[in-house]
Recover the amino acids of this structure.
């Protein structure tokens, strides 16, 4: 049992570090991205990684109160990606 | 006893799977060298990465005793919206001509996102 708990703790630490690292890497792509499409894609990936981080926080603390936050961020991320892409495509968001 | 053991180990394994897929997606986003190629990598983070993390969260809450299936909602939402946003980003890439333009369609003259209305032609030509 203690082995499983230690494994779980290490997996949590590793998952936190790795997801934070990939968040930083997509932020680098957001800064250097040569075109608008890359920046939109990097922002979308950062939203996905933020959902992952919030879920990890919920697992680490053993609560379910972060579910609503991750749901709202998922919806907001989709809407903002579509709005940004539509702004580039049409020059307007709601015509 | 054994149920808790198996649940804890399964949670840890799901966490590691999700984290590794997220890292693979970020490496692909950073290292691939074309706009359309880069579009391919982060779909792994959106489906398998976050999917495995949500599975870990579900397994963890079931192991603790108070089971919850709410995470399926987020998973379904992400699975539905990921192709739509990917399609929009691909259209942005075509529209900005930051990739190889696809061959012209069989029926119409050109792709609709590259088509400029008659009245706006002079603005686009002045911009280029």
């Amino acid at each position: 049992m203690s082995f499983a708990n230690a494994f779980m703790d290490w997996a949590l630490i590793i998952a936190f570090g790795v997801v934070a690292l990939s968040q930083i890497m997509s932020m680098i792509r957001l800064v250097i991205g040569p075109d608008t499409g890359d920046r939109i894609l990097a922002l979308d990936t950062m939203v996905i990684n933020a959902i992952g981080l919030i879920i990890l926080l919920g697992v680490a603390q053993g609560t379910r109160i972060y579910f609503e936050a991750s749901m709202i961020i998922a919806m907001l991320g989709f809407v903002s990606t579509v709005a940004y892409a539509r702004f580039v495509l049409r020059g307007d968001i709601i015509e | 006893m054994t149920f808790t053991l198996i649940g804890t180990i399964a949670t840890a394994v799901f966490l590691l799977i999700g984290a590794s897929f997220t890292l693979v997606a970020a490496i692909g986003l950073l290292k691939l060298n074309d706009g359309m190629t880069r579009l391919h990598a982060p779909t792994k983070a959106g489906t398998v990465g976050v999917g495995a993390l949500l599975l870990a969260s579900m397994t963890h809450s079931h192991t603790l005793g108070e089971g919850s299936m709410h995470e399926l909602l987020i998973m379904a939402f992400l699975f539905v919206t990921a192709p739509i946003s990917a399609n929009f980003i691909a259209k942005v890439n075509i529209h900005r001509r930051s990739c190889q333009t696809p061959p012209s369609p069989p029926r119409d003259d050109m792709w609709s996102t590259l088509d400029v209305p008659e009245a706006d032609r002079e603005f686009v030509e002045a911009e280029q």
About this structure: The mean pLDDT of chain B is 84.
